[in-house]
Amino acid sequence: MTKHAGGAGGTAMDIATPTRTKDIIRKHGFTFKKSLGQNFLIDKNILDKIVDAAALNKDKGALEIGPGIGALTERLAQEAGKVAAVEIDNRLIPILEEVLSPYPHVSVVHGDVLKTDLAKLWAERFAGCSEVSVVANLPYYVTTPIVMTLLEQKLPLDRIVVMVQKEVAERMAAKPGGKDYGTLSIAVQYYCVPDIVCVVPSGAFIPAPNVDSAVIRLTKREAPPVEVSDEARFFRVVHAAFTQRRKTLHNNLAALVGKERKGELAGLLEACGVKPERRGETLSLQEFATLSEALATAGMIE
Ligand code: SAM
């Protein structure tokens, strides 16, 4: 367990307690916006688990998405050398400036993370850091776009430790063969090794969300686990395979290559060692990679 300034019992500085959170909210007359996924963490033990999973130190940087009133930001500030936090809600900016005033190495950026130039932010905020992690209690209405943006932009980041809806964490970490395995599992596992750090009950937040949550760590891979000559094509095949989950791979891929080539497609699947009647959810990343290369070689897809 990481030691931090607050210690096990906490101090008056800890934001993540029900009393302090309520005090800050009352003082600033803040009201929660459900549409922005505003569920603030009030459980110090969960914060410890998140921060421990991020393995920060003073040489490292941390990007937080959605700092809220700064409960996690404060802990990141105690552990990391540089912290940047992007918050969309302008009502929270003065609160963050006040609660984070003891930490000059923290910068708060007002904006929508999905519209933020992250490469520029990296260059401006994390120069000289040995590693950078994204650490956040994500707004659930945009979890997948945020995670995919972070991965697809190929930012120099080492790990992502995020609180997400429990079902989403399970989908990210799912192995082939079950109902949770799909395009999100494959996209995440192409770039990262996922592990679920802990499951978090709704009582750890104010206001309590209607769903259980989980902290998941995505450790960025040095290189993808499969070789593909064109990533966009690989993901097009993956998406096509899951267009209608109950349909066979053969039927779903026929919609991609054209119905007139359905017979040829069956032969190609067999030649790749994949029975045409299998469903997308049973295929490993390697099988998808083999298939997308074979489809391209056969001139069946661009
Ligand atoms: N980090 C705080 C905590 O753990 O208590 C708050 C987490 S709350 C689940 C999500 C936060 O993300 C809110 O502060 C919300 O205003 C912010 N947010 C929502 N959409 C955002 C976006 N597109 N870009 C940046 N911040 C966003």
From TrEMBL:
* MF annotations from Gene Ontology: 16S rRNA (adenine(1518)-N(6)/adenine(1519)-N(6))-dimethyltransferase activity; RNA binding
In which residues is S-adenosyl-L-methionine bound? 39, 41, 66, 87, 112, 137
Keywords on record: Cytoplasm, Methyltransferase, RNA-binding, rRNA processing, S-adenosyl-L-methionine, Transferase
User: What SMART domains does the record tag this protein with?
Assistant: rADc
Q: Which family does it belong to?
A: Belongs to the class I-like SAM-binding methyltransferase superfamily. rRNA adenine N(6)-methyltransferase family. RsmA subfamily.
Q: Which HAMAP family match?
A: 16SrRNA_methyltr_A (MF_00607)
Q: What name appears for this protein in its UniProt entry? A: Ribosomal RNA small subunit methyltransferase A
State which gene encodes it: rsmA
